[in-house]
Amino acid sequence: MPETKLTPGIAAGRLEPGSYSENFADLHPRLEDHEALVAADRCYFCHDAPCTTACPTDIDIPLFIRQIATGTPDAAAKTILSQNILGGMCARVCPTETLCEEVCVRETAEGKPVLIGQLQRYATDTLMDKGVHPFTRAASTGKNVAIVGAGPAGLACAHRLAMLGNDVTIFDGRAKAGGLNEFGIAAYKSVDGFAEREVAWLLQIGGITIETGKSLGDGVSLAQLQSDYDAVFLGIGLGGVNALGLEGEDKDGILDAVEFVADLRQARDLSSIPIGRDVVVIGGGMTAVDAAVQSKLLGALNVSLVYRRGLERMNASKFEQDLATSKGVRIITNASPKAVHGNGAVREIEFEYTDDDLNPTGQTIRLAADQVFKAIGQTLEGDDLPDVDGNKIAVTDAGRTSMSGVWAGGDCAAGGDDLTVTAVAEGRDAADDIHAQLSGA
Question: Which secondary-structure segment (H or E) carries 406?
């Protein structure tokens, strides 16, 4: 973030050196063997388990927990990975508190669910630590598929296609594969380069080539891909960031939260990341919370997260909200940005309070700010794309678009939640549909 280094009030190295490793330690450390057995023993192994129904990737949760309980975590990992090849990362970042764990019978009866997410991590980490890849490729189909985007949807699609015997080439605009998992989540949710290691492990299936530094409109065109390959899958995410639409939005110190989170994820030395004294984050989703919490962990004195609707309307889960407040983030709701104040650099952000229907009340508040992060949603970018539905690519069935031979999934596709686990499910299902169509099944 070079533009911030000369902005008054923003500085790097606000904390003592040892504080950074402590602040950005693993949010949920891996369970020890005994802890995993105790946690697995709490599962009722329900028939028609509600947790499985709530999982976007349809993992047989009672089965994999029973496999852990009987001392076969490798088998548990294969159960997970057969449905969700990125089960290791999803165990770290999936909002289990609003999915599988929310509907757990233990949660309903006792208010304390089985630790499904942590048990999933235990199983997948146990297998991956051995360097074992539990799947093998089928005989070659002679078909070639292009995938644009090396994020969760693209990687899941690529792995399933390769496993079924197809050759796959993935194109991605960044210098490193991983997409959201590599660049878009809080540093404390995935430590020790796990995202990169998971990609390398996934590629052990064979038949997948990744070409970085190429994206639609920059080294790759959709028309050319349609000509050169038997099928195309778009997992391009949402590359643009919405603007506040305020005069003065271009002042120094106003940045995109997405870029801030990405810089943190790639930083070798967290003390080199410049952070303000008074930070304001605008938005109510996971990215907003990640930016706010990490600002506090980097040494910001005052951090406010401001959302235009009420707490119950925030996309960030209750767990994420509580995490933010536990780290000292102040959450202000029902307030919309109205004006940016400052001479050259931002000094204050003015908000106007709104009612539940976003109608202005006439009451305003000014927050001191030397650094502001925008986390108010992202937009689809690209030319000559298939038909769109609102701000995303329109899809039917298992990700089929308006263009023959072109599928889409993940954040760029209409209809799904903007979650890693949903992207994996959409990429996997599109791969099965692509394979069926190419093989004439």
Answer: strand 406-408
Domain's final residue, options 356, 377, 398: 377
For 18-61, what is each residue's pLDDT tens digit? 999 999 999 999 999 999 999 999 999 999 999 999 999 999 99
20: domain CATH number is: 3.50.50.60
d(CA 298, CA 33): 33
Q: Are residues 228 and 334 in the same domain?
A: no
Phi then psi dihedrals of residue 216, to 5 deg? -60, 125
Supply the pLDDT for residue 362: 96
Model confidence over 414-433: pLDDT tens digits?
Answer: 987 889 999 999 999 999 99
Domain with 256 in it: 2-25+242-377
Q: Residue 5 — very low, low, confident or very high, per pLDDT cuts 50/70/90?
A: very low
Cα dist. 59→77, 91, 128 in Å? Answer: 11, 12, 18
As a whole number of angstroms, the distance between CA 332 and CA 84 comes to 36
Report the alpha-carbon distance of residue 239 to residue 382 in Å, rounded: 9
The answer to whether residues 155 and 177 touch, using CB atoms and an 8 Å cutoff, is yes
Q: What is the pTM of this model?
A: 0.95
Radius of gyration of the CA atoms of the chain, in A: 22
Spatial distance between the Cα atoms of 256 and 264, rounded to a whole number of angstroms: 13
Residues 6+ apart with CB under 8 A from 103: 50, 51, 53, 54
| Whether 373 contacts 285, CB under 8 Å | no
Tokens 């146990």 belong to 126
* Helix locations, 276-419, DSSP H: 286-297, 318-326
Q: Say if CB 374 and CB 283 are below 8 A apart.
A: yes
d(CA 3, CA 263): 13
Phi–psi pair at 411, nearest 5 degrees: -60, -25
> Which helix (H) or strand (E) element contains residue 234?
strand 231-234
- Rounded to the nearest angstrom, the gap between the alpha carbon of residue 387 and the centroid of all alpha carbons in its chain is 25
